[in-house]
Amino acid sequence: MLLPGRPLPVPQALCTGEWNRKRIIAYISNTSLVILTGVNKLLQTIYHDQQLTAIALHEASGKLAVATGNLVHVYTPTARGNGYINWTLQTTITLPPTETGVTTLSWGNTDELMVGGDDLTLWSTESYEARLLWRQDLPNPAKLVLFSPDFSLAVSIAHNDRLVKVWRRVSIGSGDIQFDFTYLPHPRAVNNLHWRHAAHPEETADNVLYTFAQDQVARVWAPTYPHDAHLLQLWTVVDLKESSPLRPELDLRYAYVMDSRALGMAAECAVGRAGDGEKEQAALQRLVEVANRAPEVMIGFDAEGKMSAWGLENVGCKSRRTANVFSIVRDEPSGIRAFRRGCEAGIQFSGFVSGASLVILAHFLDGRIHWLEARVDRMLDPGPTARRFTERAVWTGHSGTIKRMIRTADGRILLTGTNDNELYIWSVENRPDGQSLRARCLLKSPERVRRTAIIESGKFIVTLHEDHIALWDARGRSAFILQRLPFKSKARMLCLILLPESVGKQTKYHVAAVDKRMCGIAWSICPPNPTSSRSNGEMGYPRNQISPYIKQIANFVLPGAEHEDILAMFPVEPVGWNAVLSDNLDVFSREVATTVCASGLLISWTVKVYEETEEVKWLETSRVETGIPNPSYAKSSSIRKIALVDEARSELTIWDSTAGILEFQQKFKEKDIVKDLDWTSTPRSQSVLAVGFPHRVVLMSQLRYDYLTATPAWGPFREINIGRITPHPIGDSTWLHDGGLVIGSGNQLFVYPRKIEEVDEVLDSLHLTQHQTKLDDIFHIVSELNGPLPVYHPQFIQQAILAGKYSLVETIAVKLYKELRSYHEEVGLDMYLNIPLDEFFKDEHVASERERQRQISYFDAYETNDDFSTFDETLASKLCEYLQKIAVPHLTGPEQIRLTGIIESMSEVHKHRRSLDENGSQYLLFFRQYTLHRNVPLEMTFREFAWAYHSNSQDILVDLVTRNSQGRILWPQARESGMFVWLADTESLRRQMEVVARNHYTRTDEKDPVECSLYYLALRKKKVLTGLWRVASWHREHASTLKFLSNNFDEPRWRTAALKNAYALLAKHRYEYAAAFFLLADSLSDAINVCYHHMNDLQLAIAIARVYEGDGGPTLHTFLTTKVLPRAAEKGDRWLATWSYWLLKRRDMAVRALLSPLDTLVESGASSPRRDLTARFFLLDDPALTIFYRTIREKTLQTLKGAEKISPDVEFNVVLHTARLYDRMGCDLLALSLVKNWHFMPQERTVKRKSLIEDDGLGRRRRRSSAQVSDDGHVAEGEWKMPKGLVKPPVAVFEEPDILSWAF
């Protein structure tokens, strides 16, 4: 739907014609030229510096001429493919400046243009330089001038002119052009003129002129003698009042002339589309009878919307027949309500035929254009027909530039405003072709309007001004003021907020305004009864009302006003809720407003008005520290999402105010300045954000959280670009109640419905389908991007694995294989694969030890699995084959590839199921996925390293990682696997470092010892390195390095020399070699600082420190406490923090770091202004943290101490927050399972006295595990310890025995 702007109240504000087989409609609105090709299809808008006064279209060339002041601009069309046409300026005609200026335009033959004002001038526009052909002064400024269809005559009238001047061209050619003129007298002033068009384009017909005067009589002028065709005589008259003689009080009547050519075309189409009904056939027969007479049809309308139609046949001297005027329809309802409003200023009609329908463009000179459409056979049916015309659109709106929009809570009433204090109230209407806006009331304020509020569904408007507040009655076409009430404030008010009311209190409303000092004023509004009559006056009170409409009830100060001033205060966008409040004032109440401080602090507020004491109490509901200084714009929604734009308007962040986390961050290009933000939501409370730029609006949807692939939590799904059809930047936008979006640009309003009708590249890139049908409804699109996932979705399976539900995952794989084996796309797949819901809620953590860790005998490998009832390598292989052939419903291509990788990884883990524990299996599963999809931007994190660190199968994991690197593991592969982070055994750590050193040395044929220097020196094997240099005689640094290494670096002088070499290498950016020389100088701290700061390799720094001096070394301790832990706090990385604390033997802190805020556990040191922004990112609240906490909280006595320091309230909130995260991820079944199966540690449990028999939290008694370790690291009672002096042998991966080796 389109509202191109308020048309100017001038006779030539609208024109239409057909050019290049395309309908062109153009009109002028203030300074803009609006060009359309359909009821809701805008081609182009061209803005000018001054207000336009007239427009004319040349059908032969498609040129458009517009007048402004003493200038005439001529635009020529250019086709650019795909039906797109663009008009560009060809030339500008400059006339001598006059007080009147140019008032009328008319195109003549061969690009000739008649320009009327204080005089008439004829110009040639064939070239880029316009040329004057003729000029004639006029006694009165011209109101309207029109060339005849054959361009031999022209007619003109002035304002209130009874004499129509007929100009006859007496010379044709490029020489001297002359016109003479005659008069056509009328008894009253002439309002409008119309030339008849020939029945066929190539036909030469008489020039017939229709004139419409203020006496409500239409006159027909035509030539009488064939040899004097230029002399027009009165041919006949049509008295428009005759159609309604019983209602003489209807003074205003309007008429439109339909040419015989248009009637014939419409009749032909009507015959081809007619139905078989008896009534329809009768109407068609009547139309055919009328069309066969080839008349012009004059259609008259009165002020009640009644219509009459007359046929005029044989007009003109060439017909050689008797002229006749006959009645077709008499005083029948037209179905048009627009005429009932009347228009004393007059109406100008234009029209054309579209198929079997007649389209009439009725330009009401009070500022609106109605698109009226009617089937010709029904329109001219003399029988009773209730609705002959259909109103397709009303083009109206503002004259100035739209700067702001507000809407009611339900989105059914819209208010738009300009800088000229012109406000329009619109109501939202649902039509078959989508939502539309109907102008209800115009409000013009003499003072500047700063803020507005809508009450009583737009019947009344509250405006906030500099020093007073006002109430307006907007129940009519023009609003008038009811009351003004002054107020005093020490600072400018930032907002005007309509406070939500409790149910049942609809006779009184409350509004509040707040200034930057967080001081505010509240008023009560008691509007008149909406059903009472309006009284046009400044008086404000009805006779039976003593109290005023507006009353100031309270002055208040928002809590926390002693802190910094606020930059802005925004009302909360009402998304999917009515403006009501509960009876209680608490944090669960609906949020009303959000304040923005200069430091980036966002505070959301709720409010309650106490009628008895006339108090207004505010309560802070949430507080978000964004760390973004001086934000320029913010918008919050009632489902507690806040969008924030930085000071430069180039960066957008989206926050969840409930959890205080950052969900999205994007930096736009310099030209993409964010100008507007608007919220809405689906019926399922899934958020949608409209981000407005100067010439486009991007619709963004919330997406499912994905903690494994780290995809954004928000993404665009539609882009609306208006830059092609208008050069004016977007002023504001807002959502309607049913998902429609209104965009204001210049003085135009664009209404986009929920259903996407045009091609959208952003939407196409998502490849969203449902039942093989492309999704085109924005609510359906957002629901598809959110909501519960099918249980076979890769994200659900991965999260189930992290939650320890291995049996469930294998069940899902088996069921998916069976479903795909007989899959048909018309049947689809059940989202739960017909798995009983109880299977999803089983707590595998409390399963029996025998069931969780059941060992399979050697002979189990040879059992057949013909029915594929259990998961094994064969089933995994067949399932992967199906996944490569079948397009699985609700999975995109990349998601299906991920699922295939997960199944392959599960198959790999299944091979080693007897050798790996749960923690090792989880690590191996994700490591295999990483190696299968190296091209995906996915990397191993400390989450996977933490699982492996707590695994008892580390030697097997090392062997599998080494095999994955073809037995030649280098440092990049070691860093990918994280083995030097998660290996707990010091001897294994040193062995792997030696393997890495040896592989680096033998990596190339030259065997460069520089490549392995850092690793050998970390192992303190200088002699080995010296031997390698001794055989590297080819190296250019051979002699000097060998000589240097032969020194005794226990002596201070040689350590100093090594340090000098290290610094020299730093200057040359040879960082790894520099770290090696620092180790040579026994300066471990410098070496790891080089790795950490210069090489940006945290793992390398940790590996060097652990290998060089062991896990208990002071340098490693200092590095972890001063570098790693502050980094974890700064980044919000809980996985890194818990690993660091565990390595520091602070296992109580390792447990607390999983749930407690990190900034309360560790000092992050000097922080940058953006530190908090990174630390609040949603990806840091990994649900696996909660699962990991449950895994390790009872592992040792020290972890039990840490768990006891976490209050039950904190643990309860963390569990609920994790459940919300699961729900946002689409894993609602996992959320239910977590809440159902979680058991809290009893508060009375102590660590010092721990019984061997303990409660599992579910009312069951079990024996305490013997795997708990005491605080100092000693093995607790019941655990076997290896005798001193013995080395733990490496564990090899179990391999199935060859059947041929068995001796039967």
TrEMBL record:
RAVE complex protein Rav1 C-terminal domain: residues covered: 600-1234
Single biological process term from Gene Ontology: vacuolar acidification
Sorted UniProt keywords: WD repeat
SUPFAM superfamilies found in the cross-reference section: WD40 repeat-like
SMART domains: WD40
Gene3D superfamilies (UniProt xref): YVTN repeat-like/Quinoprotein amine dehydrogenase
Transmembrane segments: none
Pfam families from the UniProt entry: Rav1p_C
Residue stretches of each WD repeat: 395-436
One Gene Ontology CC term in the entry: RAVE complex
Top-level taxon: Eukaryota
Protein name per UniProt: WD40 repeat-like protein
